């Protein structure tokens, strides 16, 4: 029975990993080999598209052209770095104190305000797009990277994740620090942040995965294509661009994969903490 379960789980795991294997195989194929497989899709040829997980003639030409002969790729790469770093830094500076305040202090209208936070967290980008556009346009930030960074920095989702971790800190520990003469600032810096580091790391991992793959926000707020992030690289793919598109997809995937693997334990803790009802 266990062998049957392992076989079934292995099949599902292979199906889940197939898109990644598809990208790896395509990035190692030449233009002619890819054209033979994908012409029914990309060139509206006859028949059905087929594909091999092991290239007949492996080549690294697509990676060489992408990394050595595509300066626009590196411009978009550094745009992604700046956008992602700016948003995550803003979420730390804004979200961590906000989550601590919601978790440890009682103030008027606390529950209604937190409910508003949860409501905003569940709203898709299309709901807040117009209001963000009007505010950013009024501030003169349209067509700058700040137009993407500022709305992301004030995201409510990291507050929700970190809030769950901060509420798990025993009140007796905080009270003992107050009795010893520690101020609220010291308690937050030397107790709250270290004890809630799991929630902070979990929020940063989820934030990186979201920011690294932003598509709608740059398309809405950035008209200058020189400011576009890497997630918008090669939006129109034909047979000639297919090898570069496969290689670019693999390179874009690597940072997110490393961040996910490095923060997997924190991510699991954040999911468990977010699932606990108040």
From TrEMBL:
Membrane topology: Multi-pass membrane protein
SUPFAM superfamilies assigned: MetI-like
Record's keyword terms, sorted: Cell membrane, Membrane, Transmembrane, Transmembrane helix, Transport
Domain of life: Bacteria
Organism (species): Blautia hominis
Residue ranges crossing the lipid bilayer per the database entry: 81-102, 114-133, 145-166, 187-209, 237-261
UniProt name for this protein: Carbohydrate ABC transporter permease
Record family assignment: Belongs to the binding-protein-dependent transport system permease family.
Start and end residues of each ABC transmembrane type-1 domain: 77-263
Localization (cell): Cell membrane
Keyword Transport belongs to the record: yes
Cell membrane found in the keyword field: yes
């Amino acid at each position: 029975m266990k062998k049957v379960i392992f076989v079934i789980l292995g099949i599902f795991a292979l199906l889940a990993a197939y898109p990644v294997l598809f990208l790896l195989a395509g990035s190692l194929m030449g233009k002619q080999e890819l054209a033979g497989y994908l012409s029914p899709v990309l060139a509206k040829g006859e028949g059905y598209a087929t594909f091999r997980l092991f290239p007949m003639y492996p080549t690294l030409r697509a990676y060489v052209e992408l990394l050595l002969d595509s300066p626009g790729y590196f411009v978009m790469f550094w745009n992604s770095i700046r956008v992602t770093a700016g948003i995550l830094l803003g979420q730390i500076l804004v979200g961590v104190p906000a989550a601590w305040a919601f978790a440890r202090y009682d103030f008027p209208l606390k529950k209604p305000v937190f409910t508003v936070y949860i409501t905003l967290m569940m709203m898709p980008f299309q709901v807040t797009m117009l209001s963000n556009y009007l505010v950013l346009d009024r501030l003169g930030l349209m067509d700058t990277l700040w137009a993407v960074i500022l709305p992301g920095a004030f995201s409510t989702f990291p507050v929700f994740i970190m809030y769950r971790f901060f509420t798990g800190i025993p009140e007796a520990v905080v009270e003992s620090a107050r009795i010893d003469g520690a101020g609220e600032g010291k308690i937050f810096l030397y107790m709250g942040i270290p004890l809630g580091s799991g929630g902070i790391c979990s929020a940063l991992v989820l934030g990186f995965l979201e920011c690294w793959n932003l598509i709608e926000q740059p398309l809405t707020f950035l008209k200058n294509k020189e400011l576009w992030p890497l997630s918008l690289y090669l939006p129109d793919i034909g047979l000639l661009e297919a090898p570069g598109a496969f290689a670019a997809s693999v390179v874009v995937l690597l940072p997110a994969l490393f961040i996910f693997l490095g923060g997997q334990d924190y991510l699991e803790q954040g999911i468990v903490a977010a699932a606990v009802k108040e």
